[in-house]
Specification:
two-stranded antiparallel ribbon, 2 helices, 13-stranded antiparallel beta sheet
Length: about 250
């Protein structure tokens, strides 16, 4: 009887915990909206930015994923940043995730970043990323490892940011003048264009707006409901057994 009771209590507890877990956003997915590249890089679904809660108050993880044969560069079109965004906070702490450390040969926070991780930086007083104008509280990351010509620049970036009152919705309070939330300086190796009589891959700034929220996986909710049902069934059976022996 003790084991049945234990199973019942465990199943009920787990069932309520999972079934009651809010099916609200734990991450926001931002999709590429347009591009401001010289020669037109194009707009593809594979260019995304995902902002995820970490379970730590006032902290978010930002992951940038570029499409196949797209790469980060530092063309100068980003005003010093190769990936940028704006937030209401006047300072942020950056922590490296992928790559695992900041360095003068990969990525550094913007503005005024260095190789230290974590590090706290103060906002830039506004930034124009070649057609995407952000408000005063501008932040970003600067790519320091190449101009994209040799496809050496990588296509994935992840880092943590921390700041007072930082939440998933903080980005919506500081959009750019054209409603973009994020922007990146890129090269598209899938295309070749003629610019000033020279055949080359298009480079420049692309931007991202909110595409969708990522909810709790439905399987987790179903699992919670199943456990809840198991617990109630066990409790019912035990009550029926007790009544039969009374």
């Amino acid at each position: 009887m003790a084991s049945v009771k234990s199973l019942t209590l465990t199943a009920v507890a787990l069932g309520f915990a999972l079934a009651a877990f809010p099916a609200t956003s734990r991450a926001d997915l931002y999709s590429q909206t347009s591009d401001h590249c010289t020669g037109m890089c194009g707009t593809v679904a594979g260019n995304t930015v995902t902002v995820t809660t970490t379970g730590v108050a006032n902290q978010l993880e930002i992951t940038v994923q570029l499409a196949n044969n797209w790469n980060f560069i530092a063309s100068g079109a980003g005003g010093g940043a190769s990936f940028g965004f704006a937030l209401p906070q006047t300072s942020l702490t950056f922590t490296a995730v992928n790559p695992a450390a900041f360095s003068a040969s990969t990525w550094e926070p913007f503005p005024g970043g260095n190789a230290t991780s974590p590090q706290t930086v103060s906002r830039s007083t506004g930034n124009m990323m070649d057609g995407v104008s952000f408000p005063a509280n501008f932040y970003g990351m600067t790519w320091l490892a190449g101009n994209g010509a040799a496809n050496q620049d990588g296509s994935t970036l992840s880092f943590l940011i921390s700041g007072a009152g930082l939440t998933l919705t903080s980005f919506l309070a500081a959009t750019s003048t054209d409603h973009a939330i994020f922007a990146a300086d890129v090269i598209n190796h899938n295309r070749t264009v003629i610019i000033d009589g020279v055949s080359q891959n298009p480079t420049g700034i692309i931007d991202f707006t909110l595409g969708s929220a990522v909810p709790l996986p439905p399987a987790a909710l179903l699992f919670g409901s199943a456990l809840l049902g198991l617990g109630l069934l066990s409790r019912r059976r035990r009550n029926r057994d007790v009544s039969a022996t009374a």
